[in-house]
């Protein structure tokens, strides 16, 4: 099976006095790009949370946000009386110097000012730390489940695109068989338009064979079929065990090789119908390349 790098998960856990909620979301990235936002009282365990994320998520642009709420008798924030007192003194001094009236409602005036409230930064208990890490693990588990669900959608998408390329490749044989007689007839027709030129028909046959060998696409078709089979093998089954690290990168490399063979097939086709099939194969492959970037 394959996993998507896109996902979202939410987890929560509680201690005696705190409820902690953690959201984790991820997008595609070449490596693990982690950004963590936690309240001030959880800063001391941020590094441990990062280690939990790194252990579960191999790649992706990951953003972790945590919210801490008090559920006990204590409040999470308190009035910053020292700062409020300093604000009041400065406002009174300003009113006296500038001959301005003093505020009618001191409460609304002071409480709107910066740092009117201060967070309770008391030391976390062991139970608080455990609740935070449990919430992180729960969010990561939910995100992995999301990645599994998205991975199944990607799996079905890739299977359909590989089948489409395989069917288009099968249609090449029909046009390839008619190609040699048409090329030979076209060359002879061009030569017949130059009556003054005499040529050895035996030598012409040799040159035609050499020319046709250059346009032969048997190797390209064989290699492309091998790449298609290898892509499916790397995808694995829809319900297989968790994939090895870097599976998305491997699928990307295979898609590049498929592109080389399709491009060579197009350059050698020298026939309108075959070139149309090549364009259609390129379209299917481009869709694969876009979605491979989302595979873990």
Question: Can you list the strand order of the major beta sheet?
Answer: 1-2-4-3
Strand content: 5-15%
What is the average per-residue confidence, as pLDDT, rounded to a whole number? 83
Order of helices and strands: EEEHEEHHEHHHHHH
**Head-to-tail CA distance between termini:** 11 Å
Rg from Cα: 34 Å
Tell me roughly what share of residues is in helical segments: 55-70%
The total count of helices amounts to 9
Biggest β-sheet strands, sense, barrel: 4 strands, mixed
Class per helix and strand makeup: alpha+beta
Number of strands: 6
Overall geometry comes to: elongated
Regions with pLDDT < 50 over 5+ consecutive residues?
none
Describe this structure in words.
With 296 residues, this protein is α+β, with helices and mostly antiparallel strands. It contains 9 helices and 6 strands, in the order βββαββααβαααααα. The protein has a 4-stranded mixed sheet. It has a two-stranded antiparallel ribbon with strand order 5-6. α1 runs parallel beside α4. The longest helix is centred in the middle third of the chain and has 52 residues. The radius of gyration is 34 Å and the shape is elongated. The model has no long low-confidence stretch (mean pLDDT 83).
Highlighted features:
9 helices, alpha+beta, 296 residues, two-stranded antiparallel ribbon, four-stranded mixed β-sheet
């Amino acid at each position: 099976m394959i996993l998507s790098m896109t996902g979202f998960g939410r987890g929560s856990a509680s201690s005696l006095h705190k409820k902690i909620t953690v959201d984790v979301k991820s997008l595609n990235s070449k490596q693990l790009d982690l950004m963590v936002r936690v309240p001030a009282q959880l800063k001391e365990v941020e590094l441990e949370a990062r280690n939990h994320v790194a252990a579960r998520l191999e790649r992706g642009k990951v953003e972790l946000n945590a919210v801490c709420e008090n559920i006990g008798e204590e409040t999470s924030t308190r009035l910053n009386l020292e700062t409020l007192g300093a604000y009041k003194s400065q406002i009174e001094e300003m009113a006296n110097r500038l001959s301005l009236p003093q505020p009618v409602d001191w409460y609304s005036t002071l409480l709107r000012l910066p740092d009117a409230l201060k967070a309770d930064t008391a030391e976390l208990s062991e139970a608080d730390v455990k609740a935070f890490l449990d919430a992180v693990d729960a969010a990561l588990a939910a995100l992995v489940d999301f990645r599994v669900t998205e991975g199944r959608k990607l799996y079905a998408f890739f299977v359909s695109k590989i089948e489409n390329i395989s069917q288009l490749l099968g249609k090449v044989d029909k046009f390839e068989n008619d190609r040699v007689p048409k090329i030979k007839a076209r060359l002879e027709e061009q030569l017949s338009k130059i009556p003054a030129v005499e040529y050895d028909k035996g030598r012409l046959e040799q040159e035609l064979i050499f020319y046709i060998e250059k346009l032969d696409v048997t190797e390209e078709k064989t290699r492309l079929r091998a790449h298609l089979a290898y892509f499916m093998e790397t995808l694995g089954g829809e319900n297989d065990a968790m994939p090895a690290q870097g599976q998305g990168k491997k699928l990307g490399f295979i898609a590049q090789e498929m592109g080389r063979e399709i491009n060579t097939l197009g350059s050698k086709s020298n026939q309108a119908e075959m070139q149309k099939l090549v364009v259609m194969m390129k379209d299917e492959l481009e869709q694969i390349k876009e979605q491979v970037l989302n595979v873990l």
